[in-house]
Design goal:
binds adenosine-5'-triphosphate, binds magnesium ion, 487 residues, 9-stranded mixed sheet, 16 helices
Length: 487
């Protein structure tokens, strides 16, 4: 009798509400008024003006907030945090995931953040103390920062963790930054060792923390925001100190539901069932079809919420990221599950139903999202089969795909370069990326010289206002598909 994901989410809200946090809604995955960020990549994004003390960016009620908590839908497929290649191949990185978070805006600091994290995980949820590891920042010379001794001391005084389970790591793992600039600070993370006892006796979990091992997994990051990273990469002290935490919701659900993989939780079950029904293949049949099914179950989430939140497939910026994710899913379906007709949009209702309470935007935008996804898959399916055939001919007996060939796949068959790279990787073939980039640049220059903007035309479409969809004329991302013209 494990807890449902809905109950786990609610537990988190209840816990922090009792500690005087206001529960706020998730911001859209398309950041509002932040041109430095393609997609919302952490719960703290929407609070950036509060951290920076930018009064003007705040709504009236936000100015009075001292503590908040929420679940934020995040996308990590671009910029500083890009997990796309792991997705589907591992069991705990997603393109879109929920980040549970609690915040202090110049209010409580390390002591409460650390003590409460332990209280929730161990006292309330019953996780075993001797499976837990805490990591702290070891300091950094370049940034002129010392080891975070304060956090080490607090893990000892505020929790029941064993001393040799408190580990120091460098800034790659223990100094959190949203992007190249912005609010940031040292962090302290919780990791959990899920291996059976025999294995834990043979090799200490400490050796596997931060080693990309799904059995010793990072679950919660407690960030102590004290700085603003400047464009010249120096650190400027903020006027106040803040707490910013992020817990991977799908991961904690897997832990509390006793599953080895996020995909085995009730969060992914309905989608995998639907994919299984569409493909006529069971999940668990074999590794190759399992990867494809996980990729598809994952990608429909990122694609659907992006579109619902206002970023539709296109040739530039956010729109191109969405298109890349979508085409990646379609390729996996075609190649590994023999899904040769539009299928991806059929998953939208399953997802909308699942999230109708937490993220109602999808159920509201459901028809629109289905239409956009269907149009996009239809247009890609027109060239995908031929493109795959051509790709196979291009790499036959070779160990490198030329820049010209990669460019042709892109230009004529609509293969994003990361899709070509993925297919090449599957066959142990390298791609001449530099050659490809050179040809792309030349093409853009030719288009500019000719006074037209070629592929650039679509950047307007990245900015569709969700609220306006009723009377908004969507011009379509290319001329192939009549269905893209949605009134
Ligand atoms: P990892 O090292 O596993 O890639 P991270 O250190 O990049 O995680 P943070 O930036 O610290 O992640 O984000 C806070 C929490 O969000 C993590 O502790 C993890 O539980 C969760 N998380 C991060 N990236 C993903 C992802 N791609 N999919 C699902 N959960 C994630
Ligand atoms: Mg990461
Ligand atoms: Mg990490
Ligand atoms: Mg982390």
């Amino acid at each position: 009798s494990h807890k449902s994901s809905a109950q786990i989410r609610q537990d988190f809200f209840d816990f922090f509400e009792e500690k005087d946090h206001i529960i706020v809604s998730s911001a859209p995955v398309v950041p509002q008024n932040d041109p430095t960020l393609l997609f919302t990549n952490a719960g703290m994004n929407q609070f950036k003006p509060i951290f920076l003390g930018e009064e003007s960016g705040l709504k009236r009620e936000e100015k009075t907030w001292k503590r908040a908590a929420d679940t934020q839908r995040c996308i990590r497929v671009s910029g500083k945090h890009n997990d796309l290649e792991e997705v589907g191949h591992d069991t705990y990185h997603h393109t879109l995931f929920e980040m549970l978070g609690n915040w202090s805006f110049g209010d409580y600091f390390k002591k409460e953040a650390i003590g409460w994290a332990w209280e929730l995980l161990v006292d309330k949820w019953g996780l075993e103390p001797d499976r837990m590891y805490a990591t702290v920042f070891e300091g950094d010379e370049e940034d002129g920062l010392p080891v975070d001794q304060e956090s080490i001391d607090l893990w000892k005084s505020e929790t029941g963790i064993a001393e040799d389970h408190i580990l120091k790591f460098d800034k790659k793992d223990n100094f959190w930054e949203m992007g190249d600039t912005g609010p940031c600070g040292p962090c302290s993370e919780v990791h959990i060792d899920l291996r059976p006892d025999e294995e834990r006796e043979k090799k200490p979990g400490a050796d596997l923390v931060n080693m990309d091992d799904p059995r010793v997994m990072e679950i919660w990051n407690l960030v102590f925001i004290q700085f603003n990273r400047q464009p010249d990469s120096s650190l400027k002290k903020l006027p106040a100190r803040h707490v910013d935490t992020g817990m991977g919701f799908e991961r904690i659900c897997a832990v509390l539901q006793g599953k080895k993989s996020n995909y085995d939780t009730d969060l992914f079950e309905p989608l995998l069932d639907k994919i299984s029904e569409l493909a006529g293949i069971d999940y668990g049949d074999n590794e190759q079809t399992d990867i494809a099914m996980r990729v598809i179950a994952d990608h429909i989430r990122a694609v659907s919420f992006s579109i619902a939140d206002g970023a539709s497939p296109g040739n530039e910026g956010r729109g191109y990221v969405v298109r890349r994710i979508l085409r990646r899913a379609i390729r996996y379906g075609w190649d590994k599950l023999d899904l040769k007709e539009p299928f991806f949009h059929k998953l939208v209702p399953t997802l909308a139903e699942q999230f109708k309470e937490v993220f109602p935007v999808l159920v509201k935008q459901q028809d629109y999202v289905i239409n956009v996804v269907r149009a996009e898959e239809k247009s890609f399916l027109k060239t995908l089969g031929q493109g795959i055939e051509l790709f196979n001919e291009m790499v036959e007996g070779k160990d490198e795909l030329s820049g010209e060939d990669a460019f042709k796949l892109h230009d004529t068959y609509g293969f994003p370069i990361d899709l070509t790279q993925l297919m090449a990787r599957e066959r142990g073939v390298e791609v001449d990326e530099q050659g490809f980039n050179r040809l792309m640049k030349e093409q853009k220059e030719r288009a500019r010289a000719a006074g037209k903007f070629g592929a650039d035309h679509s950047d307007k479409e990245d900015w569709i206002k969700v609220q306006d969809t009723d009377d908004f004329t969507f011009i379509g991302y290319d001329t192939l598909s009549a269905e893209a013209h949605i009134k």
